[in-house]
Design brief:
By secondary structure, the protein is of the alpha/beta class. It is built from 16 helices and 11 strands. Helix 5 runs parallel beside helix 6.
Length: about 375
């Protein structure tokens, strides 16, 4: 029985993780639930799953949550500091990092420092501070288990290969292409947030869905893959695969390729990360080849989706540059969702921020924090 702490239980990944746990009560139990603003759903989840502890990071909602859960004998805390500290609990066996953006960095770093395995859905943690996060993972023997479908696919393809010293020649990260696949630059100039939020295959939160539409999500995943699997960014190829059936693939030094396939459903990689190294039986819908008689592949049109190029530039320079890029992107996506910037304007804002903020080749944690805050402030000033 694994006792799970879910950081971000009211978001898309968090709610699906709770579905997985509810279907497997013999394998998992909920120890911690956290949310930022969605107090009502957090309360509902806590009543159903009876965790040891609940965190509402928005302190203004603490009293409401505390009073609502008082009779259930559930501990309630509030604030960012409590969110970072809760992962230290001895009763936690695994931490699911499902927070949005930069907010997941400090809690995940603290979990690793305390030797907790981390099922990581919050890719920005590795984008912002991959070198530091990997170092802590190795120092404290705390595994990082990927939850993103693409990285879970690569992880599954690699099972048993490292044991025999088999090296990776290339990683193939697949992308659906999002709602604007095939659009020209002229068409992209006038797209709306309503269009961008209609992903053809996946049901995700707003931030990830916009990142997917701009292909920034694939850039973030490329950087995450570099740190997770110890490869150079030049060994990672992005392939547009509209059906989202092949979730990613690995090419080995002998030229052979292994791919992981399945329907686009995040519950499977969530369950695999939580149950690893076992595979727990599931009732998830099964893939049928007859429903997908054709699987197609295309090259991404980087000229129209500059964010993918920006991400490769950021990781080529490394240091704090991916941190700058990520912070500016968070501002850009928030602005786009609030009608303050155009779809194509997001790339320009990110590039200007990367050109302005001071570059640090070997950043410390304090440097990452300062870089993030400075980049956020500068990007907001551009609006």
């Amino acid at each position: 029985m694994k006792r799970v702490a879910i950081l971000g239980s009211t978001g898309s990944i968090g709610t699906q993780a709770l579905e997985v746990i509810s279907q497997n009560p013999q394998h998992f139990t909920v120890e911690v639930l956290t949310a930022h603003n969605n107090a009502d759903l957090l309360i509902e989840q806590a009543i159903q799953f009876q965790p040891n502890t609940v965190i509402i990071s928005n302190k203004e909602k603490y009293l409401y949550v505390q009073q609502s859960l008082d009779k259930y004998m559930i501990k309630v805390f509030a604030g960012e500091e409590a969110l970072a500290q809760v992962v230290e609990m001895d009763s936690i066996d695994i931490v699911l990092g499902a927070l949005v953006g930069y907010s997941g960095l400090i809690p995940i770093i603290n979990a690793l420092k305390h030797g907790k395995p981390v099922a990581l859905a919050n890719k920005e943690v590795l984008v912002v501070a991959g070198q530091l996060v990997n170092k802590l993972s190795h120092q404290h023997n705390a595994a990082i288990l990927p939850v993103d479908s693409e990285h879970s696919a690569i992880f599954q393809c690699m099972a048993g290969e490292f044991e025999y010293g088999n090296s990776i020649e290339k990683l193939f990260l697949t992308a659906s292409g999002g709602p604007f696949r095939g659009y020209t630059q002229t068409q992209l100039q006038s797209v709306t947030k309503q269009q961008a939020l209609k992903h053809p295959n996946w049901d995700m939160g707003a931030k990830v869905t916009i990142d997917s539409a701009s292909l920034m999500n694939k850039g973030l995943e490329m950087i995450e893959a570099k740190w997770l699997f110890g490869v150079d960014a030049k060994q990672i190829e992005i392939i547009v695969h509209p059906q989202s059936i092949i979730h990613s693939a690995v090419q080995f030094s002998d030229g052979s390729i292994k791919a992981q396939m399945g329907l686009p459903d995040m519950k499977l990689p969530i369950q695999y990360a939580l149950s690893y190294p076992q595979r727990v039986p599931s009732t998830f819908p099964r893939f049928s080849f007859w429903d997908y008689p054709q699987l197609t592949f295309e090259k991404p049109v980087i000229e129209n989706f500059r964010n993918l190029h920006i991400a490769f530039e950021a990781i080529a320079k490394s240091g704090n540059m991916p941190c700058i890029m990520n912070a500016a992107n968070e501002v850009a996506v928030h602005a786009f969702l609030h009608d303050k910037i155009s779809f194509l304007g997001m790339s320009g804002l990110i590039e200007k921020t990367m050109q302005h903020i001071s570059y640090i080749a070997q950043p410390s944690l304090d440097d990452y924090i300062h870089t993030h805050n400075e980049s956020i402030a500068y990007a907001q000033s551009l609006l």
